[in-house]
Every structure is written in structure tokens, then in C-alpha cells.
């Protein structure tokens, strides 16, 4: 799926993040979460070792390994008050604007409790909603 590029990678509070370069209207598809497909059982095993934080479950069989730097969606950081959401569209994992995103605003996804527990428990969540 070819989408216009409405974002850039830039420094955020927690490392790199994906930022809107123009206003993104609510419901707009922003970026595809791309990568090699690996069977879910194998992904669970990798997750248990915390060896890869870019695994994203696509469906009941496959998980996307989004660790490639070509996968722009991997730069989307977690927020407990996210402005985008993940959605499968014709078998592809897409990030869609959940609300209108202003130019310059960081694009965020709520990766869910499991992710927060696994990767953010040590430092605590540093998203804007949690720091306020
Ligand atoms: Zn948070």
C-alpha cells in the first residue's frame, strides 16, 4: 500500500520518534508496519527473551518483525493517550490517525499493557500523558 509520506523521524523525549510534517486528518492511514512474517509461536519465544521489541502480532498465525530500519512505523512511540491506532487493512498492519494530528506533533500508538510491562516497567512510562 503506497501512502503519501506525512511524517519524519526526529528526536523525541524517549529517543527517536515519528512526527507529522503536515496536519493529518482523523481516520487517515499514516504508515504501514512492515517486516518479515514469523509464526506466532516463534514470536512468543523471542518475546520471552525480550530480544526484539518490534514484534507486532498481525493475526492468529503471523507476527511482523518490524525491526528493519526501513520500517518507518517502528519509530512510532508508545503513549497511554495515543493519537493513532493499529488496524489490519487487507492483511496489512496499518497505523491510522485516531484523532486529527497537528503538523509537528509526535505520532503515537498505545501498544498495550503487555508492551508497557515488558519494555517500560524498569523506567516507567515517559509518555506525555504519564509525565503530566
Ligand atoms: Zn504513559
Quick overview of this protein structure:
By secondary structure, the chain is of the alpha+beta class.
Low-pLDDT residue spans: none
Number of helices: 3
Note the main sheet. Answer: 4 strands, mixed
Output the structural class.
alpha+beta
- List the ions, cofactors and other small molecules found in this model: zinc ion
Please identify the top-level CATH class. Mainly Beta
Please tell me how large the radius of gyration is: 14 Å
Mean pLDDT: 94
Provide the fold topology.
Elements: E1 7-12, E2 15-20, E3 29-32, E4 36-39, H1 40-48, E5 55-57, E6 62-65, E7 77-78, E8 84-89, E9 92-97, E10 106-109, H2 113-120, H3 128-131
Structural account:
This protein is α+β, with helices and mostly antiparallel strands and 132 residues long. The protein has one domain: Beta-clip-like, CATH 2.170.270. It has helices at 40-48, 113-120, 128-131; strands at 7-12, 15-20, 29-32, 36-39, 55-57, 62-65, 77-78, 84-89, 92-97, 106-109. The longest helix has 9 residues, at 40-48. It is globular, with a radius of gyration of 14 Å. The N and C termini lie far apart (37 Å). The structure holds zinc ion. The site of zinc ion has 5 residues, from helix 3.
Structure characteristics:
single chain, 132 residues, alpha+beta, Beta-clip-like, 3-stranded antiparallel beta sheet, 3 helices, 16% helix, globular, binds zinc ion
Amino acid at each position: 500500500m503506497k501512502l503519501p509520506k506525512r511524517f519524519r523521524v526526529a528526536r523525541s523525549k524517549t529517543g527517536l520518534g515519528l512526527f507529522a510534517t503536515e496536519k493529518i486528518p482523523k481516520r487517515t492511514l499514516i504508515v504501514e508496519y512492515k517486516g518479515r512474517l514469523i509464526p506466532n509461536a516463534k514470536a512468543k519465544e523471542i518475546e520471552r527473551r525480550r530480544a526484539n521489541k518490534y514484534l507486532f502480532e498481525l493475526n492468529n498465525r503471523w507476527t511482523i518483525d518490524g525491526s528493519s530500519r526501513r520500517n518507518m512505523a517502528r519509530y512510532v512511540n508508545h503513549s497511554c493517550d495515543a493519537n493513532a491506532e493499529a488496524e489490519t487493512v487487507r492483511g496489512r498492519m496499518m497505523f491510522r490517525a485516531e484523532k486529527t494530528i497537528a503538523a509537528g506533533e509526535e505520532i503515537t500508538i498505545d501498544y498495550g499493557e503487555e508492551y508497557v510491562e515488558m519494555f517500560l516497567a524498569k523506567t516507567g512510562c515517559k509518555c506525555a500523558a504519564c509525565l503530566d
